[in-house]
């Protein structure tokens, strides 16, 4: 099991943040531009924890020693069921330097966009404090 998955599944936000490289780039399923840096990525992940319910990983793709991993998940955003995948790339130090999230269906992606949009003031404040 990838350490990112383990941290998410137990809700350990400190461990999750410790897995991120300082220069990590987060690519959102609902925003055009990627978010560079550990502070904003960690804050977005905390926001996701507030938005998703019934989250669970259903599959993990990638060899344990690979730099690339795909973690397939299901969750709920409000009354919408969402299916998605976290694509991770780890650097030579074993830290995540790229995190790309894709989700479906469109109705759930729209719900996610709206829910995360409502969180973004708080996310920006958390990132600025880091």
TrEMBL record:
<feature type="domain" description="SnoaL-like">
    <location>
        <begin position="6"/>
        <end position="96"/>
    </location>
</feature>
<protein>
    <submittedName>
        <fullName>Nuclear transport factor 2 family protein</fullName>
    </submittedName>
</protein>
<dbReference type="Pfam" id="PF12680">
    <property type="entry name" value="SnoaL_2"/>
</dbReference>
<dbReference type="InterPro" id="IPR032710">
    <property type="entry name" value="NTF2-like_dom_sf"/>
</dbReference>
<dbReference type="InterPro" id="IPR037401">
    <property type="entry name" value="SnoaL-like"/>
</dbReference>
